[in-house]
Design goal:
Elements: E1 2-7, E2 10-14, H1 15-23, E3 26-30, E4 33-41, H2 57-62, H3 69-75, H4 88-117, H5 139-145, E5 161-163, E6 180-183, E7 188-193, E8 196-200, E9 204-208, H6 215-219, E10 224-229, H7 236-241, H8 257-260, E11 261-271, H9 275-289, E12 291-301, E13 320-328, H10 338-341, E14 351-354, H11 367-370, E15 380-383, E16 393-396, E17 408-413
């Protein structure tokens, strides 16, 4: 992910640029024949041009939308809907929103202003007038059917891992549902799996499986220093849309985090704005795993011109989501020295500002931000993933969803050497350490960094 701005308040990120960095040079396999292509994630997926609904006049002014103030004043005279008694969940939401409102408003304004001074978040300049890509994803249904397949026995670690591409380019014998699949290439690979083409980033590993079939991940034999997860939380919108199967909160406790996490592992969980979900993570889920809550961050979603995608004070949808960050400490592990146990301090209430994807449930990668808070050469895992990241291990029942070739623009390249250096991925197999302190930043891809 390209870091556009980093400051004491947080970051502005260019999510699309990060995807491109992992896939800009790609080997395309067709049978045993290979060719070279450049891959770019389709730009229309990040063309969020307008906010949904009206913004309050004060919020519009404070984030720089003064051109909308006249319309806001007229809108405020419209008839208000009848007041209805709030339930406890709605009351809790209002209390939480009031608590963090100034953090979101003031922090977003500062970060957006910094980004605009660099020429970013000034509106879409090169509009792509094409419809959003759509690919009917049947991966979850296939995972459900694959539950009948046998798994390797405990101790058979070698049987739980396989290479994505054989020496002859063959992928026909890859078992995606009961073994961890590794792509060990130093560049992205486009392969045919289950009759569909997918773009696989370099040096990545993944397991495509149902929630009840995480054993191969445990047998994989790795302990992870960073674990990010985006659970399919239950809510009315998901039930109505039937976009994906949700999971009861209590079932999350079954995830084998203590078997996957190294001591001092940083665990980050995406949480909806429903207070009961936030309380569950803080008060039940993390303590159940032995994780200490150390910070809450906020992902603030803005349009290409820097407006909130929803009104900040909307009663329905908010323009932000919460991330709960914690540290896993294993009481059984006494082998680490004091230096190895030391932690980089995690600041509370930091913001991650970005233009969200117009594709449902596609979250931005956090790797460029979180690398400042984990040890050098950290091993990283994403749970409930719907895409892959260079150098990471990923698991989910739709783990390849946004790697489908239909989401990418493909350009033939005669040879990887023909691709300009700035387009070549420089990602390492693991998250690399930052040379600066967490309050500073090296210049990111495409955009310079400012610190307010």
């Amino acid at each position: 992910m390209a870091v556009v701005v980093q400051s004491s308040r947080g970051w502005v990120l260019d999510a699309c640029s990060f995807i491109d960095r992992g896939c800009s040079r790609c080997i395309r396999w067709s049978g045993d024949q290979k060719s070279h292509v450049k891959c770019r994630f389709k730009r229309q997926c990040f063309q969020v041009l307008k906010s949904h609904g009206s913004v309050t006049a004060s919020a519009a002014a404070e984030v720089g939308n003064t051109d909308m103030l006249q319309k806001m004043n007229k809108a405020s005279k419209k008839r208000k809907r009848k007041h209805s008694e709030l339930n406890q969940g709605e009351i809790d939401s209002q209390v939480f929103h009031k608590k963090i409102r100034s953090v979101i408003l003031e922090g977003a304004k500062a970060l957006v202003d910094s980004a605009r001074s660099l020429g970013y978040l000034k509106g879409a300049t090169d509009l792509v007038k094409e419809p959003l890509p759509f690919q009917e994803c049947s991966l979850a249904a296939l995972c459900d059917m694959a539950k009948e397949l046998p798994l390797a026995d405990d101790g058979e670690q070698e049987e739980s891992v396989q290479s994505l591409v054989a020496e002859d380019g063959c992928t026909s014998h890859v078992d995606l549902f009961s073994r961890v699949t590794e792509s060990r290439a130093d560049r992205a690979t486009m392969v045919t799996l289950m009759g569909e083409e997918y773009v696989i980033p370099p040096r990545t590993a993944f397991l495509l499986s149902d929630f009840t079939r995480t054993q191969p991940l445990v047998h994989y034999g790795r302990k992870f220093d960073l674990i990010v997860m985006d659970p399919p939380w239950e809510n009315k919108s998901v039930k109505r849309s039937r976009r994906y199967s949700s999971l009861p909160s209590s079932q999350l406790k079954r995830l084998p985090i203590p078997l996957l996490a190294s001591t001092n592992c940083l665990v980050v969980t995406w949480v909806t704005n429903r207070p009961s979900h936030l309380r569950f993570v803080r008060d039940e889920l993390y303590p159940h795993w032995g994780i200490e809550v150390v910070a809450e961050w906020f992902w603030v979603k803005v349009t290409t011109s820097g407006q909130f995608v929803f009104p900040l004070d909307s009663q329905h949808k908010k323009p932000y989501e919460v991330l709960v960050l914690g540290r896993y400490h294993s009481s059984a592990d006494t082998s680490l020295s004091s230096s190895e146990m030391s932690e980089v301090h995690l600041e509370d209430q930091r913001l991650i500002v970005s233009v969200p994807s117009a594709l449902h449930s596609q979250k931005p990668s956090l790797s460029e931000v979180l690398k400042l808070y984990v040890r050098p050469e950290a091993t990283c895992l994403e749970l409930f993933a719907r895409s892959l990241q260079p150098g990471w291990t990923s698991w989910g029942n739709e783990v390849l969803k946004f790697q489908h070739a239909s989401y990418f623009t493909l350009t033939p390249a005669d040879d990887p050497a023909d691709i300009p250096k700035e387009e070549v991925s420089t990602d390492k197999p693991t998250v690399t350490p930052a040379s600066n302190s967490p309050g500073e930043s090296s210049p990111p891809h495409h955009w310079p960094t400012t610190v307010d």
